[in-house]
């Protein structure tokens, strides 16, 4: 008799052990078939229960095709965070002071993977550092003529064109019951979706997960015990259901420190930085790198220090904001890093 394969969802993994959730919500430890362990959290898999007398642990026989894969890559290794996710939430805080370099890299990785990104700024109760951080995010909050007018519409721009921010940015106070000025809007945005939460240490990721998933700590402890790994939580991504029936899930993830982008081609970088990319259409040279060429429309669009990003470069329906000098500087640095390797 041919063995029957079951459908499952990889909810976490550690080394060659994975926790697979079955269709009825039960969880099983599974090993990958063969030597390679390529499954990633979020993978939909076909798995096989052990034959009678063969213990408790199943095998992952097949990984179903992915809609996306979010990963980073440095010189030494590739680290997959998750597969099949609907969006990435980069969580930052008024404290500690965030690195715009790390933020920009995470956003480039999300864009390159075709995954929409949101930004949360936590600790709104700390007015001064919060205001500074909020100002540092001005270029990300900047409204642009909408590419997809149905999403995120925030009023009309010149000539009535729909506008949307470069990235949706949410003001949060996750430590408080009200969750901050945009707390409710963020929770609304998470509903029915799987969201990978990224961010540096100390911004409030655990606070967010524990708030949304009250038994997260218990789940984590159970998984650690089952996988027999004390340091489990710091090394891998975990999928938590907020509302399984509604399809709402949050995934926590470790390590935001060095976000390697070795997998990104330098030629495609403007495509993954939407403010740069949307200006990169009329340069004199078709293969303009936007670094040094004459007749470069991108460099013409960069605001001088102290200038207004919002002041449009082109008139009429094409009105687009300028490019913030800090964003162009990030482009130059990322370009140098990708090209130099
Ligand atoms: N002032 C303030 N502090 C907060 C808020 N939300 C969380 N914190 C505090 O920020 C600190 C870090 O929060 P965590 O949730 O542990 O942060 P994390 O991102 O999980 O950090 P790691 O576990 O190091 O990755 C804790 O002391 C929280 O109490 C907030 O809205 N305001
Ligand atoms: Zn150019």
Automatic annotation (TrEMBL):
Keyword Cytoplasm attached: yes
InterPro entries, sorted: G_CP_dom (IPR030378), NA-bd_OB-fold (IPR012340), P-loop_NTPase (IPR027417), Ribosome_biogen_GTPase_RsgA (IPR004881), RsgA_GTPase_dom (IPR010914), RsgA_N (IPR031944)
Superkingdom per UniProt: Bacteria
Location of the CP-type G domain: 72-259
Places the protein is found: Cytoplasm
EC number: 3.6.1.-
One example GO MF annotation: GTPase activity
GO biological process per UniProt: ribosomal small subunit biogenesis
Obligatory cofactor(s): Zn(2+)
Keywords associated with the record: Cytoplasm, GTP-binding, Hydrolase, Metal-binding, Nucleotide-binding, Ribosome biogenesis, RNA-binding, rRNA-binding, Zinc
Binding site for Zn(2+): 283, 288, 290, 296
NCBIfam families associated with the record: ribosome small subunit-dependent GTPase A
Function: One of several proteins that assist in the late maturation steps of the functional core of the 30S ribosomal subunit. Helps release RbfA from mature subunits. May play a role in the assembly of ribosomal proteins into the subunit. Circularly permuted GTPase that catalyzes slow GTP hydrolysis, GTPase activity is stimulated by the 30S ribosomal subunit.
Designated name of the protein: Small ribosomal subunit biogenesis GTPase RsgA
Originating species: Lampropedia aestuarii
């Amino acid at each position: 008799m041919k063995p029957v394969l079951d459908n499952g969802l990889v909810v976490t993994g550690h080394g060659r052990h994975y926790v697979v959730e079955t269709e009825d919500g039960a969880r099983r430890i599974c090993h990958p078939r063969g030597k390679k362990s390529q499954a990633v959290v979020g993978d939909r898999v076909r798995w096989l229960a052990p034959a009678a007398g063969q213990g408790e642990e199943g095998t992952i026989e097949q990984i179903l095709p992915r809609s996306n894969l979010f990963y980073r890559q440095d010189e030494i290794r590739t680290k997959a965070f998750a597969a099949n996710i609907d969006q990435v939430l980069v969580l930052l805080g008024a404290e500690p002071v965030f690195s715009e370099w790390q933020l920009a890299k995470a956003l480039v990785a999300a864009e390159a993977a075709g995954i929409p990104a949101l930004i949360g700024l936590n600790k709104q109760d700390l007015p001064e550092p919060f205001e500074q951080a909020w100002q540092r995010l001005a270029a990300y909050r900047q409204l642009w003529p909408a590419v997809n007018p149905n999403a995120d519409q925030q009023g009309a721009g010149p000539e009535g064109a729909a506008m949307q921010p470069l990235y949706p940015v949410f003001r949060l106070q996750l430590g408080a019951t009200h969750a901050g000025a945009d707390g409710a809007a963020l929770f609304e945005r998470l509903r029915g979706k799987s969201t990978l939460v990224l961010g540096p240490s100390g911004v409030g990721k655990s606070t967010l997960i524990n708030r949304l998933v009250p038994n997260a700590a218990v789940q984590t402890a159970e998984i650690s015990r089952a996988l027999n790994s004390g340091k489990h939580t710091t090394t891998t991504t975990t999928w938590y259901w907020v509302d399984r029936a509604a399809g709402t899930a949050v995934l926590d993830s470790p390590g935001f420190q060095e976000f390697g982008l070795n997998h990104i081609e330098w030629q495609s970088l403007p495509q993954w930085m939407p403010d740069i990319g949307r200006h990169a259409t009329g340069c004199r040279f078709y293969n303009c790198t936007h670094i040094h060429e004459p007749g470069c429309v991108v460099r013409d669009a960069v605001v001088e220090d102290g200038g207004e990003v919002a002041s449009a470069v082109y008139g009429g329906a094409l009105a687009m904001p300028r490019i913030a000098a800090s964003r162009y500087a990030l482009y130059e640095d990322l370009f140098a890093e990708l090209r130099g390797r």
